[in-house]
Amino acid sequence: MYNEIDLDKIDINREPPIEEPARQYHYMAKCREWVRAFEQKNGRRPCFSTQTFGCQMNARDSEKLSGILQLTGFAETTEDEADFVIYNTCTVRENANNKVYGRLGYLHSLKKKNPHMRIALCGCMMQEPGVVEKLKKSYRFVNLVFGTHNIYKFAELLSRSLETDKMIVDVWEEAEQIVEDLPVERKYPFKSGVNIMFGCNNFCSYCIVPYVRGREKSRDPKEIVREVERLAADGVVEIMLLGQNVNSYGKTFDPPVSFARLLQEVEAIEGLSRIRFMTSHPKDLSDELIDVMAQSKKICRHLHLPLQSGSTRILQAMNRYYTKETYLALVEKVRKAMPDLAITTDIIVGFPGETEEDFAETMDVVKKVGFDSAFTFIYSKRTGTPAAKLPEQVPEQVVKERFDRLLTTVQDIAAEKAQQLTGSIQKVLVESVNDHDASLVTGKMDNNATVHLPGSAQLIGRIVTVRLEECRGFYYYGKLAEQP
Ligand code: 5AD
Ligand code: SF4
């Protein structure tokens, strides 16, 4: 819809419409006027830069912000050159917040050199109590602050912000609605994330996400299918369906629509070659989903299944609703249905009360499952979560030592698993020219592993057949096995 809208036909002197997304298009037209005036005065277009911290959800949100900025006439550039800098923040671990405060110090020095520079902050960190107060007190040079629930109002907030030097803050407690049909500027022409739900209802005891992203809300399946159809028609071959817990998609609809059913509808869309999804909570992974995956020609042979801990006692304290045994049984079931499935995971080390025995259970699961890769995290105390109040926080030195042991084991196992595919023929979606060697291109296999192969930019966006020649730990060097 948005590519059919002509902003120049909108009369910005009229009252802005109440309904969405029409209201936002009104403000986009107003921003475009501002951009034109800027251009006349300065002889160039204003430039923007976005920085994304955190997960795939944030990456997708940033594409929405870029879409609006580009439609209104801003040009993209580097942070040092930008007139409008926007940080889309994460708060899942404490160091994510620290990174943002650190970067703000740097931005302040840039702003002193370029007083026209405007700075906006959004994303999960803004939803956390205390952050806005701290910004108001110590970071007055920030122009605009908004949260996760009103990101769809970005055009309106931008328009207000462009007309004042005062700090504008608009952070909501809860989401009001899901607004469809706003512009998006994809980072890659050939692949895209697609939100299927927002928020999380699980309240894992260590996690701040349910507090900053709010309650679970599923998007209408018709809207999702419509978006994927449009993406496929626009040349996208791979999509990633995004939600904090995709397995509970559609449960609140009347009648409910399962995630497996949604996958089937998406699979039927012509032009798509690959479907990925993220993230699956082990407690909700249904037999129906396993069946649909096993039957599918498009769903990638990759399952991200966060373990968090291998100790049933700790899992209970984490509020995860599965045990060591049920997790292992689930892995066995999915492997039986799909022997070539890559399984990856997230693990937290040093949750309050974690003993050496608990940690040994985690190591045991890691060895038994043989994860293809794992994101390992040191537990980070997040104020406001139940775990933050637990008495037995594990000493830093003990956690660090466990973390190192876990990381070594995870990497050894992943390298061993990766080695097994050396010599095999694989389909690879070529994504970019290699950063270090321009005679190579880099792509992703079905199981999400990275492959470098000789080739040129012409291959970008194509799915090619590759022989894996050499394994280097968790990536490969390969060669085209057939002419594309
Ligand atoms: N400390 C450390 N890791 C965390 N995660 C979520 N909250 C915390 C925390 N407080 C990890 C989990 C989750 C991943 C996205 O981040 O492993 O799966
Ligand atoms: Fe956080 Fe648990 Fe929700 Fe994942 S499922 S976002 S870890 S509360």
TrEMBL record:
Residues where [4Fe-4S] cluster 1 binds: 55, 90, 124
EC numbers, comma separated: 2.8.4.3
Record localization: Cytoplasm
Gene Ontology CC annotations of this record: cytosol
SMART domains: Elp3 (SM00729)
The organism's place on the tree of life at top rank: Bacteria
Domain TRAM residues, every copy: 419-482
Keywords: 4Fe-4S, Cytoplasm, Iron, Iron-sulfur, Metal-binding, S-adenosyl-L-methionine, Transferase, tRNA processing
Catalytic activity annotation: N(6)-dimethylallyladenosine(37) in tRNA + (sulfur carrier)-SH + AH2 + 2 S-adenosyl-L-methionine = 2-methylsulfanyl-N(6)-dimethylallyladenosine(37) in tRNA + (sulfur carrier)-H + 5'-deoxyadenosine + L-methionine + A + S-adenosyl-L-homocysteine + 2 H(+)
Cofactor: [4Fe-4S] cluster
Keyword Cytoplasm: yes
Cofactor: binding details: Binds 2 [4Fe-4S] clusters. One cluster is coordinated with 3 cysteines and an exchangeable S-adenosyl-L-methionine.
Residues that, per the record, bind [4Fe-4S] cluster 2: 200, 204, 207
Domain MTTase N-terminal span(s) in chain numbering: 46-163
Pfam families in UniProt: Radical_SAM (PF04055), TRAM (PF01938), UPF0004 (PF00919)
Keyword match Glycoprotein: no
Record-annotated Radical SAM core domain positions: 186-416
Annotated GO MF terms: 4 iron, 4 sulfur cluster binding; metal ion binding; tRNA-2-methylthio-N(6)-dimethylallyladenosine(37) synthase activity
Assembly and oligomerization: Monomer.
Family: Belongs to the methylthiotransferase family. MiaB subfamily.
Role this protein plays: Catalyzes the methylthiolation of N6-(dimethylallyl)adenosine (i(6)A), leading to the formation of 2-methylthio-N6-(dimethylallyl)adenosine (ms(2)i(6)A) at position 37 in tRNAs that read codons beginning with uridine.
Protein name: tRNA-2-methylthio-N(6)-dimethylallyladenosine synthase
Organism listed in the record: Eubacterium plexicaudatum ASF492
Name of the gene encoding the protein in the UniProt record: miaB
